Amino acid sequence: MRVHRLLGCAALLAALGMAFAGFARAENGPQAMVAQGDTYTLKLALGEPAAASAQAGTVQFIGSATVLIRYQGLTILTDPNFLHKGDAVRLGYGLSALRQTNPAIEFDQLPPIDLVILSHMHEDHFDELVQERLNRNTPIISTREASESLKRLGFQQRFALSDWDRLEVSKGETRLRITAVPGRHGAAGVSVLLPTVMGSVLDFGANADTPDYRVYISGDTLVYDGIRSIGQRFPGIDLALLHLGGARILDMFKVTMDGKDGVQMMQIVKPRKTIPIHYNDYDVFASPLAEFAREAKATGLEESVVYLSQGDTYTFTPRKP
H or E stretch including 313? Predict the structure, then answer.
């Protein structure tokens, strides 16, 4: 096992060398134009009557980056990871990570799911158990790269979004717009070797431009220039779910936000409330939640942070007209 891991590290380091060289060349090329995004639609079967728009919604933290969002008759699952403490996930290049926690609920205890938002295809976000047992007709919104993997796994309803693409979801009278927003899984030279990442903005309500409630999910990203456009395009974010943990590969390359980054993200996107997630579940995480809490307190943002233990639920209400 150790030899295999060392070989994987050597392979990754070699690939990093080529990636950085390619990135240096790309930096001297012409800059791409900013895309405006395409629009897709998803009509869900009504099933149980949708909840009235005036009723409260909930966010339940299951563990890692996995949460259940229930609002206006919709049940949304993010980055499903239901492995247990001691289970390993593969990260590519022969590298792996061990889970340090158990999920708050078991996969079989999930309520009926309307759709899944998958920020990227890594096994700590879409594990082998989920790959085997999730209903193949479940709509999954993710990156184009992840959607190719989902196709090979037999999932039928795949919605592949690039930055600023939108998915208009309807279920009876309920309306939701999901917009893919920028994310980058590490520094520029490292991220090209890792899965493409999708952040997402969820706008609930009949008019997505003046939503009843707006949620931002960061995905596994660092803070970089592309993030600033999120706050500019989506003012008035009600709730941010931030993937923290300061995850590192080879103990060298940071690929998710640490505590200081998380607070910087709050300062950029300016959410009314923030829930930190994805911070203590795997042995590659190097930044404990306490680091984020210290930074939030030092910058005067602690009152806007909601800390959830695994299994806890945050209840929110729509904006007042």
Answer: strand 313-316
Angle, helices 289-298 vs 259-269, to 10°: value is 50
154: left (phi over 0), alpha (psi -120 to 50) or beta: left
Question: The tokens 């990156």 sit on which residue?
Answer: 143
In sequence order, the 6+-apart residues with CB closer than 8 A to the CB of 169 are 41, 42, 43, 44, 74, 115, 175, 176, 177, 178
The CA-based diameter of the chain, rounded to the nearest angstrom, is 61
Task: Give yes or no for a contact between 304 and 274, defined as CB atoms under 8 angstroms apart.
Answer: yes
Tokens coding 66: 């996995």
Q: CA geometry: angle at 67 spanning 259 and 135, to 5°?
A: 140
- Supply the DSSP symbol for 287: S
**Beta bridge pairs of residue 61:** 67
Fold of the domain spanning 38-89+96-316: Metallo-beta-lactamase; Chain A (3.60.15)
CB atoms within 10 A of CB 211: 23
State how far Cα 159 lies from the chain centre.
15
Q: Which runs of E-coded beta strand occur in 139-188? A: 140-142, 158-160, 166-171, 174-181
Whether the model clears a pTM of 0.85, i.e. scores above it, the answer is yes
Whose tokens are 């931030």? That residue is 242
In Å, how far are 188, 215, 286, 311 from 63, measured between CA atoms? Answer: 28, 18, 17, 8
Residue 97's DSSP bridge partners are: 89
Amino acid (1-letter code) at residue 272: R
pLDDT < 70: residue spans in the chain: 1-35, 48-54, 321
Collapsing DSSP to helix, strand or coil, 186 comes out as: coil
Residue 69, SS3 per DSSP: strand
What is the 8-class DSSP label of residue 311?
Answer: T
- Cross-strand partners of 95: 92
Cβ-Cβ contacts under 8 Å for 31 (sequence gap 6 or more): none
What does the block give as tokens for 43?
Answer: 């009509």
Q: What is the pLDDT of residues 222-255, one digit of tens each?
A: 999 999 999 999 999 999 999 999 999 877 889 9
